[in-house]
Design a protein that fits this description.
Elements: E1 3-9, H1 17-25, E2 30-35, H2 45-53, E3 59-62, H3 65-68, H4 72-84, E4 88-91, E5 96-97, H5 101-134, H6 147-155, H7 160-167, H8 171-180
Parallel strand pairs: 1-2, 1-3, 3-4
Antiparallel strand pairs: 4-5
GO molecular function, one term: DNA binding
Family: Belongs to the site-specific recombinase resolvase family.
GO biological process, one term: DNA integration
Amino acid sequence: MAKIGYARVSTTDQDLSIQQDRLKREGCDLVRSEMISGASRAGRSELATIIEFLRPGDELMVTRIDRLGRDTRDVLNIVHECDERGAFVTILDPHVSTRGEMGRVVMTVLGMVAQMERRFIKERQREGIERAKGNRVYKGGKRRIDYELVKRLSDDGQNPTEIARAIGCSRMQVYRILSAIGANP
């Protein structure tokens, strides 16, 4: 019976070490981590790997429920998948485990709170953007990929896979950029 920790942050300017240290102190034999939004399960390969390898009696442990997900359905699906494998889910803050029925009820409520918090965050962000636009100080998000470089590499005959590898992004981003600038991949 293994304790497997899962740590997640949404952005590169956030620190995983606090979660990782706490999970290790709680006795996790292994801690997997990733930097990706918790708004959905899409792209969360470390979490998928943990769930795939859970055995009966194992325990998936996270520091807070929002590390597991910010959508009630996602959280409940994760708990269900762990249940199907005979494994448990434990949240450290507040301490809740699926080892008992009451823990499942509390986890459902916490999942709903995390989802509501996500909505509040997005609403505050939207209000801030509107206020900045009204004050004419909003510049929009920073462009992270050089569109001209993508076009130049495409014009030089490189395919989207090669371009993505060369500039360090996903192939889908390359397709989107080429579509936005009117170039055919």
